[in-house]
Amino acid sequence: MNEYRISVTSACNMKCSYCHNEGNKIARHLPKEKIFLLIENSYDLGLKQMRLTGGEPLLHPEIYEICKTLKEKYNLKIGINTNAIFIDKLLELINEKLVDRVVVGLDYFDAPISKDSPIGLSSEEIKENIIKIKNSGCNVSVSKVYTGDYEDTFKIVEWGINNQIRIKILEIENGEISDQSVYGYDEMQRRLIINFGFTLKKNSYQEATGWKGDYHAVSFFHSKCRIRKCDLCRKMHLRVTSEGKLKTCLHYCDDDLDFCVGDVRENILKKLNSPVNYYLKKT
């Protein structure tokens, strides 16, 4: 396990209909002291990178101090998942070399609001902010939840190719369990591969990726929850909620573990080695 995915806050300035908010139930910020305690007790276990999520991580009042310590004291690679609304705050972190990669949520190519939310900025404004991130020299990609609109997805992928920005297309996780993906998602993937002439490869999670020459243009991410790929999902990263819970599974909360209660190191090791059949037997 070389990556943690930490929800530093459950607060958000958007209200996306499909958001699972990393398992958080109430709005709160994860104190920076707890984050550093987690790192101190697991840094020697192969930890190399950190993904900061939310909610919207840039809403955390101590996000600058968190990134600065993670980078300068622990030399971790820092990624941020964001809606890119607070572009000035994000660019400050990037320009000070405190963030290595950014993933921006963008569901619609041209809409009054960039994601499936009643509030937010327009797609055009978010695309402009994405270009600002790219021009700053930071690694940036787009995370798009597939909404069933192929033409809109085609436009986003085409825009990504034109701007050399990788597009990650996610199958929505809506709580349904099935042994196969939604037909529309698989058909969308097939059409994009044909229409853009992608060369197919597999990533470390055994998902298809589309390439144009040496440029990684698109990644497809099926819902691991829907098709119950628990054995694969749990190997991606250890999730930490803004409540300070170690979370292996998005579907179930009864095995979540507060890492600050008891022996912190033992709690971490317990979750890193938790058996996958715990989740499989519940389906």
Structure overview:
This protein is an alpha/beta fold. Helix content is 30%, strand content 20%. The protein is built from 9 helices and 12 strands. β4, α4 (123-135) and β5 form a beta-alpha-beta unit. It is globular. Residues 277-283 have low confidence and may be disordered.
List descriptors.
283 residues; alpha/beta; twelve-stranded mixed β-sheet; 9 helices; 30% helix
Taken as a percent bin, the fraction of beta residues is: 15-25%
Query: Percent of residues in helical segments?
Result: 25-40%
Shape: globular
Strand order of the largest sheet: 7-8-9-6-5-4-3-2-1-10-11-12
Give the termini separation. 25 Å
- How many extended strands? 12
Oligomer status: single chain
What number is the mean pLDDT?
87
Radius of gyration: 18 Å
User: N-to-C SSE series?
Assistant: EHEHEHEHEHEHEEEHEEEHH
* Count of DSSP H/I helices: 9
Query: Which segments are poorly predicted (pLDDT under 50) over 5 or more consecutive residues?
Result: 277-283
Major sheet details:
12 strands, mixed
SS-derived structural category:
alpha/beta
